[in-house]
Amino acid sequence: MAHLGVIISMLVIFGGLAWLLFRSIKGREVERRVIFVFIFVAVAAPILFPITFEEHASPVVKGLFDHIDTLPPGSRVLISFDYDPAMAPEVQPMANAISFHCLDRGHKVVFMSLWATGQTLLFNTLEDVIRPEFPDLIDGVDFISTGYKAGNEGVLNVIVSDFKKMFPTDVNGVPLDSVPIFDEINSCADFDLIVALGGGRPGPKEWVLFVGDPADVPIGVGVAAVVAPQLYPYYPRQIIGMLGGVKGAAEYESELAHRHERFKNMAQPGLKMMGPQTLAHIVIICFIVIGNVAFFRSRRRKGN
Amino acid sequence: MSLPLAATHPRLSVHLFFPIIVIVLTTCSSAFGQSDTQLDTTVVDDTVSIAAAPVTTLLVEDGKYDDGDSLRLFWVPSIDDQLIDSKVTGYRVYRLVNDGAAEPIVDLLPGVGNYTDKNVELDSSYVYYVATLTESGEYPSIHTESISPQREWINFRRGYLFIIMMIISAAIIFYVETAKRGKKLFVRKIAGLEAIDEAVGRATEMGRPVLFIPGISDMDDVQTLAALTILGRVSRTIADYDSKIFMPVSRSLVMTAARETIKTSYQAAGRPDAYNDDMVNYVTDEQFGYVAAVDGLMVREKPATVFLLGAFFAESLILAETGNSIGAIQIAGTARPAQLPFFIAACDFTLIGEELFAASAYLSGEPRMLGSLKGQDVGKAIAMITILLGVVAVTLSEAWGVGIMTDLHAWLVKVFSSS
Amino acid sequence: MRQQIPLLITFIVGTLLIVSVFIPPFGDLETTFNIWFDIIAVFAFFLGGGNLLRVHINKLRKRKRDWGFSIVTILGFSVMLIAGLFKIGNPGDIASAVDAPGSLFYDIFNSVQYPLSATMYSLLAFFVASASYRAFRAKNREATLLLIAAFIILLGRTPFGVMLTGWIPDSTSLLQIPNLAIWIMNSPNLAGQRAIMIGIGLGVISMSLRLILGIERSYLGGDK
Amino acid sequence: MEHFALWLSAFLTLGILSFLYKDNPWYKLSEAIFVGISAGFWVVTLFWDNLVGKFWDGWQDEPMLFVGAALGFLMLLRLVPKIGWISRWPLAFIVGATSGLWLMNYLASNIMVQVMATIQPLFSTGYASGFDAGWGAIISSLVIVVGTFTGLVYFFFSKEHKGAFGGAARVGIFFIMITFGASFGYTVMSRMSLLIGRMDFLLGDWLGMIG
């Protein structure tokens, strides 16, 4: 049923576009209401019948993916949830995909947050997303959450040289000294990778300036789309990879499903959200092409 | 609680003493270095060593260039405040107002060495001390001497800002005066403004009205003021041509001001009887409610000419596309960079940023007004020269370490950061 | 006189606010002005709201086109006014926030004003498409650049952006469309934005000076 | 009640969308409701926030607030034709204050900050890795400087765009056009998410068609 829906809506959209292209070669303009119908269908169809497009990881996304993929199992990764519910639609899919990837590769993951609002999101992610997917992993051995600490950049300034000074215990009050993951972690420099998720302040930029650069730790980031261009200058020297907006999350999910059998059928919220976006973008691109075809035809006709 | 360790453990005292001496030396020199400017500075030296050492060299000074509403504290963090295996969990600042009881005002992270107290009043005196926090307790420092915040009358830190403002303003006023004395000044053509007469004329010919939208901001936005000054010129033309204008607005104040403006133009055109308050109507303050109403008006009244001038937000494209769909000539302009692309895409003429503010001067054709445009260009020239000079200086300084260029760059940074 | 006093007020107030930036004890003037402005705006609202009612009552009385909808507007206005001013259905007493959950005001906002506002906003999705179709045509050099920049950015947001140029070696990876898109945002786009912003800054200064000095007075009493 | 609110929201949502086809009574109804309700919303909000919150609750501590109220009252004199001209005084006050505030704010935020931000070395240096003179970085920095510079040339009013100056202005407008194209393209995604939000409401919350 859903497949039929997909096929029909694709036929309607691309058949229609082809017909409009044909008409415009004859020099006829498209009425605006026709364009509206196409946008309506392009957005509604993927919502009704989940249409996803396979994303191909761009180099900047691949940079982070490959790094996580090639680190030897047992490597230590720090993931920081520095975002709030408003940013969550864009950033949460990244948080899920990156956490899955790290834990599946057998890395030891430490979760933390610089945002008070990130603490709840972090808790929900661990309980609702990570535990069901990895029921066998043990808290404290395979992963741990140290929760939120107030102090913004100040926190970074401290943990760059002494992690336990800022976080003496995990989120449940267990002293980190008794936690196996922290046997060999004293400071941020002992991590093999730090992933900063967010887009506000403090966020990825602060992680780069206060931790990544001074301690020489590879930093990967996942940010909301609006801030992505501002962070690009740090790539590839100070940031090994970046996921920008839902698109970045979708690319990561795609790559994950593509390269790891286990995630073939996992939920892909990013890709799902990209469905209507991609289709709408394609429709607009096609209309720009059609518009130019019509324009050149009519100009040639006037020229004659 | 605070046992003097040095007395009971002679060997430990050696360890503790060395860093203390260094700190005292460095802080003393810095205190002397600043003493000529900081008359209110109080120096407190604390060299007693205890379980977790208190902070040393606690200084308090008046916040500079303020209305007497801030005091700044500096101290050297406890020597036990170390990066690894530190005993110190933070600092707590205490304050005694007018010799009253001490009360904690803020807790700070380890490693912090300063705090600005912005909750002070002119006529009160304040004494502070800082306690080092550890798991086992607090270790207070010695009190500062009593200090009262001072009010400064002139903010010298903004001196360069003042100079830049004066240069640009003086340039504008200079050219205004020059033009007033009859010197002819050249101003290039601005296509969108050249088109106004024609656009109003077209409305007259077609017997359809002109629609004027002054943005959705209130009178506390200069873009709205710019829109109203343009309205002054446009409504004059409309009065001359005997066209019709209607103007739905989303702010009551703008309604009042726009009525005043149009009325004046009609009087100036010698047709006060043709003016009517119903030309300007208030709709609603709600952004999209206003847009819904204006869209409806557009398709029902079918204006021949639409002006979209002022502060626009997301609604820019909704209005411009609807205006386009009814075949109106559209002249748009805004100083909100994010909305300009949409006007460029959907309107016939777009005034880009600065051109919006230049429009009324340009339209008036009055020499004094045109003079102000030339004055603006002086500002542009200054910005351009600064950019060129700065880029050359910083490049030469960073790439080849040219000393004089480093100085030049440092000076430019100082001047242009004085805001 | 009627001309001179307003011009004098503008001059004095404008100068005062400029100078206040350099005189710390005057630092609060901006806040003071903003509060006064808000209070003036409420008074002005009597004029605006009164005007809205007058227009629709007139329409109703004269049975102008679409007068029926004027009834709806007047009704909506009154209902909201009564619900909000008397805080109908508010949990707690009159001291509770006007938009406290559970109040009639809150409910109307959520089930009427919010969907209307969000839908009006979402029309942009359609207009973005129709504007792209019409405006992005290679009519001349300027329009072509507009077209190319928009096209690359749009392509960069679809999987095709990566697919089309994935073969380009990493040594010239800048030419891959997703990278190119970000480069455009960071370099030429940034430059253009800066020029526009500096220009706007100068425009504002010149405009403000003309108003403060009374050279520009078309808004309150014309040229003469 | 919940059910009614849902259907009402859907009815109004479709009413606004119907405008895309053409103006019609359904849209007119939605528009009339929108204008009435939202105008009422703002009267109420301004009344409680500004009149009560800022003036009524504040005048004991800050008697100067009466000056604001007096200016507001002068505004109302418009309703009295004979002395209506006095309402220009509060307007003049607002115009003066707005001009003064914006002059200083824009000098600082738009001119000084932007000029400062443009002064960057052509060869970028990184925090950790030191000197870097890659061609890509140099071209990018050059593009930013040239673009800002020529863009400003375009805005020159008092010099005719001819010769070399005209050429620079032309380059400037090229940059500005790229800026507009890029920002336009970049915004499409956020505009689409708005529509996706409404579709989710219609197809999901209202019709329950999303699994």
Keywords, separated by commas or semicolons:
heterotetramer; C: 224 residues; mainly alpha; 71% helix; D: 211 residues; two-stranded antiparallel ribbon; 2% strand; extended
Structure write-up:
- The complex is a heterotetramer of chains A (about 300), B (about 425), C (about 220) and D (about 210).
- By secondary structure, chain A is α/β, with parallel strands linked by helices.
- Chain A has 11 helices and 6 strands.
- Chain A folds into 2 domains: about 1-50 and about 270-305; about 60-265, 3-Layer(aba) Sandwich (Rossmann fold), CATH 3.40.50.
- Chain A has a 6-stranded parallel sheet with strand order 3-2-1-4-5-6, with helices on both faces.
- The radius of gyration of chain A is 23 Å and the shape is elongated.
- Chain B folds into 3 domains: about 5-140, Immunoglobulin-like (Sandwich); about 155-170 and about 370-415, no CATH class; about 185-365, Rossmann fold, CATH 3.40.50.
- Chain B has helices at about 5-10, 10-35, 160-180, 190-205, 220-240, 250-270, 285-300, 315-325, 340-345, 355-365, 365-400, 405-415, and strands at about 40-45, 55-60, 70-75, 90-95, 100-110, 115, 125-135, 140, 210-215, 245-250, 280, 305-310, 330-335, 350.
- Chain B is elongated, with a radius of gyration of 33 Å.
- Chain B starts with a helix and ends with a helix.
- Chain D has about 210 residues and is mainly alpha-helical.
- Chain D has a domain at about 130-210.
- In chain D, helix 5 (about 135-155) crosses helix 6 (about 165-205).
- Residues about 125-130 of chain D have low confidence and may be disordered.
- Chains in contact: A-B, A-C, A-D, B-C, B-D, C-D.
- At the C-D interface, helix 1, helix 2, helix 3, helix 4 and helix 5 of C face helix 1, helix 2, helix 3, helix 4 and helix 5 of D.
Which segments of chain B are poorly predicted (pLDDT under 50) over 5 or more consecutive residues?
A: 1-50
Number of strands of chain A: 6
Summed over residues and divided by their number, the pLDDT of chain A gives a mean of 90
Write out the strand line-up for the largest beta sheet of chain A, numbering strands in chain order: 3-2-1-4-5-6
Give a short overview.
The complex is a heterotetramer of chains A (304), B (419), C (224) and D (211). Chain C has 224 residues and is mainly α.
Layout of helices and strands:
The complex is a heterotetramer of chains A (304), B (419), C (224) and D (211).
Chain B: H1 5-8, H2 10-34, E1 42-44, E2 56-62, E3 71-76, E4 88-97, E5 102-108, E6 114-117, E7 126-134, E8 138-140, H3 159-180, H4 191-206, E9 210-215, H5 222-241, E10 245-249, H6 252-268, E11 280-282, H7 287-301, E12 305-311, H8 315-325, E13 329-334, H9 340-346, E14 349-352, H10 354-364, H11 367-400, H12 403-416
Parallel strand pairs in B: 9-10, 9-12, 10-11, 12-13, 13-14
Antiparallel strand pairs in B: 1-2, 2-3, 3-6, 4-5, 4-7, 7-8
Chain C: H1 4-20, H2 29-61, H3 67-85, H4 104-135, H5 141-156, H6 159-165, H7 177-186, H8 188-212
Chain D: H1 2-17, H2 25-56, H3 65-76, H4 88-118, E1 125-126, E2 130-131, H5 135-155, H6 163-206
Helix pairs in contact in D: 1-2, 1-6, 3-4, 5-6
